[in-house]
Amino acid sequence: MSEDVAQPAVTSRSVARGLGTTVLARLGAVVEIVAQPLYVLMFGLAGYGLYAVLWAAVNLLENVFDLGMTSAMQRTVPQSAGNAEAAAALRTAMIFGVGPCIIVAAIIAAFAADLGPLLNVADHDRELVTPAIRIFVWALPLWAFVEIATSALRARMVFGAEIRLRIVWEQMLRLVFAGLFFAGGLGLKGLFIAHLCSLAITAALSVRLLARHYSFADLWAGPWVTETTRNTFWAGLSILPSNIITRLFGDAPALILNMLLPGAAGAAAAGLFTIARKLSSVVQLVRIAFTYVMAPLAASAEREDRRQVADIYAYATRLISAIALPLAAVLAAGSASLLGLFGHQAQAAQAALVILLFARAAEAVLGISAPVLQVVAAFRQQLTASIFGVAVAVGAGWLVVGHLDPLTGVTLATAIGLVVMAAIPTLQLAMIEKLHPFDAQFPAVALRGIAITLVAGTAAVFADLLPDAVSLPLLGLIAVAAIWLALRFALPLADRMSLGKTGRKLRLFEHENT
Questions:
Q1: What is the 3-state secondary structure (H, E, C) of 226-276?
Q2: Cβ-contact 78, 300 below 8 angstroms
Q3: C-alpha neighbours within 13 Å on the C-beta side of residue 261
Q4: Around 293, how many Cα atoms within 13 Å sit in the side-chain half-sphere?
Q5: What sign results for the dihedral spanned by CA atoms 420, 423, 425, 429?
Q6: N or C, fewer C-beta in 10 Å, the chain?
Q7: Which residues does 257 contact at the CB level (< 8 Å), separation at least 6?
Q8: CA 376, CA 312: separation in Å to the nearest integer?
Q9: How far from 428 is each of 54, 164, 422, CA to CA, in Å?
Q10: Of 193, 187, 76, 183, which is closest to residue 139 (Cα–Cα)?
């Protein structure tokens, strides 16, 4: 690996290049969505609910005990002076991110028999709970390793490296293993083992990718306590509360619903929320893709020129608006057909799905401010949104859960908190850092995008009335058409041209040169 050289200016084209490969990498989430109906079919709604609860618990624990090391590298690696410093950041992240997860997994495995009765499950799954905890808890250190490894690759601006890991190995192999174990008679236990197998293979392959972009010789050489080590550690701790609360919004509702309702009803409610969350993650994918790209690019731009940060911040917000708004509207209008994939029982999650879809759209438009704030603002400013977001969610839950069914009430409270948590960093950047994404170009983009969104949503409402076999592909076509129209007619020419060859192939502009 060669020593670092002067970095070129960070522009909208930089965002677009990173975005393309990152979207492909995050399509693993789409593969995961497609797999969920098969899991429900094989293991039943209550069995899937138990799996969803345990995976939610693992996700929550990982976000606590990785000590924020994934986010830390997004700040320290792009600003490192050379390979040795980057390797020091990776070493610090692995020690403090994976080490605690191994210890916690061992403790939970030892006390699995005491923890099992805390979960509400169907009667026929009761005997499986304790063995499942003992097996599945080892997903915790494996998942921490995979998260830190892939974050280290993104910090090196290698945005496409997750494609094979997230789609081929993690998601596809999980589905294959689950099908094989189910056919072999292992039942629900096979799903937990399949999850571990896919994570183990993903972790092993991520080591090979890390070796291409980090100097493993520097990983073990030199002093272990340096300024980079200290900066990485404290950067992780500073963002840890925000990471924990962000994960709470994704996974805590499933755990809360499982505790609120007894027996199989608790497991089913957790499964229904997870189904709604997985489907709404199609919109969330847009924000996550931009977040992964923006954090390291904003860190690099901040080192060179604050104006570069302002330019890519505004550009990303316009592009997100053109994609997320029509996509959310079409999926919400077609929610009944989408839930039909999971069986008749899943229709109980329709209100929850619609709420989450629009919350994720608002979060997508506002939420690009969070990674910008992480890399340009003081550490203490990053806690404000998390604290207010969770406080508003708890307050909303206290007000609405008793007046609505538990699933809808918990989902509505979660959605309100999500939007508040996304909006606060936007205000912070505008008031404290004098950065905001709503430049002179944004009003026209927003008005045209909303008009296209309304037309697409109306078309999707009528499509949803058709039989599922017809409505589902039609909804897909409407969503694709709506996004293309928004990109083509809502975005200014410079934004469309930044998409390069992809924009030309999609006929978003007619110019020969980009």
A1: CHHHHHHHHHHHHHHHHHHHHHHHHHHHHHHHHHHCCHHHHHHHHHHHHHH
A2: yes
A3: 23
A4: 31
A5: negative
A6: N
A7: 266, 269, 270, 273, 406, 407, 410
A8: 13
A9: 35, 37, 11
A10: 193
| Residue found under tokens 């690696």 | 77
Q: In this prediction, what percent of the chain has a pLDDT beyond 90?
A: 41
**Are residues 272 and 342 in contact, defined by beta-carbon separation less than 8 angstroms?**
no
CA separation for the pair 162, 209 (Å, rounded): 9
Distance CA 44, CA 38 (A): 10
Distance separating alpha carbons of residues 458 and 334, to the nearest angstrom: 10
User: Tens digit of pLDDT for each residue in 315-344?
Assistant: 888 988 999 999 999 999 999 999 998 888
Q: Which pLDDT score is estimated for 2?
A: 39
Give this prediction's pTM: 0.80
Measured in whole angstroms, the distance separating CA 162 from the mean position of its chain's CA atoms is 13
Rounded Cα–Cα distance for residues 260 and 62 (Å):
24
pLDDT tens, residue by residue, 168-207? 678 888 999 999 999 999 989 999 999 999 999 999 988 9
The length of the chain is 514
3-state secondary structure of 80: coil
Mean per-residue pLDDT of the chain: 84
Instruction: Name the strand (E) or helix (H) holding 352.
Output: helix 350-367
Hey, where are the domains in the chain? 12-505
Q: Which of 42-56, 190-204, 231-245, 279-293 has the lowest mean pLDDT?
A: 279-293
Query: How many whole angstroms separate alpha carbon 105 and alpha carbon 137?
Result: 6
Give the 3-state secondary structure of residue 115. Answer: helix
Instruction: State the maximum Cα–Cα separation within the chain, in Å, rounded to a whole number.
Output: 67
Tokens 């520097």 appear where?
218
Distance (Å, whole) CA 234 – CA 346:
44
Q: Which residue has the tokens 């209100």?
A: 351
The Cα-based distances of 225 to 96, 138, 222, 456 in angstroms read: 13, 29, 9, 56
**316: nearest Cα among 15, 21, 24, 26:** 15
The Cα-based distances of 86 to 118, 218, 431 in angstroms read: 43, 9, 33
Q: What is d(CA 44, CA 125) in angstroms, rounded to the nearest whole number?
A: 11
**Any idea what DSSP says for residue 194?**
H
